């Protein structure tokens, strides 16, 4: 069975970089809770997939690079950096063409090889401001 750190690495590679929705259903437990930036809460893979699609609609070329990761028991914390260009319609705004660069952390709690709870921390306000600014 994969370690929480390995599951976290797969999450960013498969869900975000490879855009594999099937990985959400494989890695995110049916009743998993996601505490996302901006106060958004999702439960289960279907709700998380809707969130993923919203981000990908706005930032279709997003790439996430893991900077560092730590794990302790059933928990893993991943420090990541994402780069993209705001070329798509999504997140309730028209594309600006602006480049986006953001850094964040995601804390995963894993049981039986699946994420059962996750917490995101990144600057959604900065992202929105960058996307709204004229190119």
Core attributes:
single chain; 135 residues; alpha+beta; Nuclear Transport Factor 2, Chain: A; 6-stranded mixed beta sheet; 4 helices; globular
Give your account of this protein's structure.
The protein is an alpha+beta fold and 135 residues long. It has a single domain, classed as Nuclear Transport Factor 2, Chain: A. It is built from four helices and six strands. It has helices spanning 4-17, 21-27, 44-58, 124-132; strands at residues 28-35, 41-43, 63-72, 75-85, 99-111, 114-122. The protein has a six-stranded mixed β-sheet. Helix 1 (4-17) packs antiparallel against helix 2 (21-27). The longest helix has 15 residues, at 44-58. The chain starts with a helix and ends with a helix. The mean pLDDT is 93.
Give me the side-by-side strand order of the main sheet. Answer: 2-1-6-5-4-3
- For the record, what CATH class applies? Alpha Beta
CATH architecture: Roll
**Gap from first CA to last CA:** 46 Å
What number of structural domains do the residues give? Answer: 1
Query: Structural class of the secondary elements?
Result: alpha+beta
Radius of gyration: 14 Å
Low-confidence stretches: none
Number of helices: 4
Approximate helicity band: 25-40%
User: What profile does the largest beta sheet have?
Assistant: 6 strands, mixed
H-E string: HHEEHEEEEH
Shape: globular
Q: What is the CATH topology assignment?
A: Nuclear Transport Factor 2, Chain: A
User: Quick check: average pLDDT?
Assistant: 93
Q: How many strand segments? A: 6
